[in-house]
Amino acid sequence: MNLNTIAVLGGGPGGLYAARLLKRSHPDAEVTVYEQGLPDTTFGFGVGLASRTQRNLRQADEQSLDAIVSASHPHEMAMRVGDDEVRLAHGELLAIGRATLLSVLQRYAEEAGVILRYGARRSAGELAADLIVAADGISSATRGEFADEFGPSIAEGDGLYLWCGTEFALPSAVFTPVTTEHGTFVAHAYPYARDRSTFLIETDEQTWKLAGFDVSTAETPNGESDQTSLDYLQDAFAKTLQGNRLIGNRTKWLRFRTVRCRSWHHRNIVLLGDSAHTAHYSIGSGTKLAMEDAIALDRALLAADGLEAALDAYELERRPAVEHLQAIAERSMAWWDSFADRMTIPVAQLMLAYMTRAGKVTVERFAESAPHVVPAGLAAFAAVAPADVPAPGAITDWILTRPLVHSTHRFTGRDAPSGLRDTTRTARVTVTVRPWSDEAAAIVAGLPPAGVYWLEGPDDRESTLDRLELGERIRLATDALVVADVPAALRADAAAALASARVDLVAFTR
């Protein structure tokens, strides 16, 4: 395909990376990046790079990935509740300062022959390029300009979060909650340089309002940081901060926005990264998605004979992976939004619940990578010694055969007896809604008095995961025994739900 001119709107990581790849693949084309900001100004702190993302970037462009890795900071991961902590040894987790990442990508884009234009806003409608790549972020002006064609929908999360940082390197990434007089705040914090760490802090709306942050948010001008919140959170997380201060960079409370679009391209304009889609930061960064979009777009343009076919192929390849990640991310976001309700769970078991929260990781797989954590978590679940927990490979069956005593009930294993379904103390609940939706809240609020709630519904995996998550919501709201139907093929999901205290029993269906 002959492309003479390529315009990229947005000089973030996705736009710069796409420009470099496209210039390398189309060396005779004029590739220009238009960024309204200046090259040495950015907002944000660190960017995480998981091992799979690193592999994808290495296959696409080993040279730039080597430069990124050399400027990155490796770290492990921990979860701490009060004085109890578990740590995961993970040698492939990296983080890099956003400004540093942009500097690397700017350099490599220019080295490839990309023209970088800063300090002026340009719109897709005014550019006369053969291909226009709109990498202009979550508030994409391009998506808004052609809203009828792209068909965007944007859903806001229930919780609130803010990004800030501190001027020292944490010993590892850490997930840790603190409870103040107003409620619970949860920090996701990680080091990204020898003297810098990112702090992402979340809370629920009630706590946010009780702390007065609805007022401080409203009073903080755009482009400035909410110093009232930073001062409060600095005191709240003083132990984790080790006497260091929290710093802001346009830091204000936000609700996460999940962006979806009916189409990712229109004529010669294609959306990339956050302009096309977002997934909650707890499961994968927007930077990762945007750079992987760039790889797929470059590959599609090389393989197709025409632009329309190439953009169709790009969307056909990327959409299933993005939508799958968005589904996982929604579960993860809901889990974090309700984190405060789980703080009585022993920390090793809580780490197990965290790792399996979205259906992406099984208990068996986690046990293989964290042999010092999973036995402690499963021991807490089963009320046994860690030494009594079997090795990976036998864990799923072991979980399903653990006895349970619940009120007057005694069970020799976690597969519910069929006779329990039809007792007078059992309420059967058909679940066909997302577990943390308003409709699910109505179901929980309207539950009839019962000693047992038996959850039924469709047998596909997504519906089963929904049912198991709603089970946790019912367990948190009642003292009843909670049972969920699970297809026999999803034994691993059943085991994860049981070990993570989402349900008490499961009933296997064909």
From TrEMBL:
Name by which UniProt lists this protein: FAD-binding domain-containing protein
Pfam families: FAD_binding_3, NAD_binding_8
Natural source organism: Tsukamurella soli
Keyword tRNA-binding recorded: no
Transmembrane segments: none
Keywords, ordered alphabetically: NAD, Oxidoreductase
InterPro entries: FAD-bd, FAD/NAD-bd_sf, PheA/TfdB_FAD_monoxygenase
Signal sequence residues: none
All residue ranges annotated as the FAD-binding domain in the record: 110-325
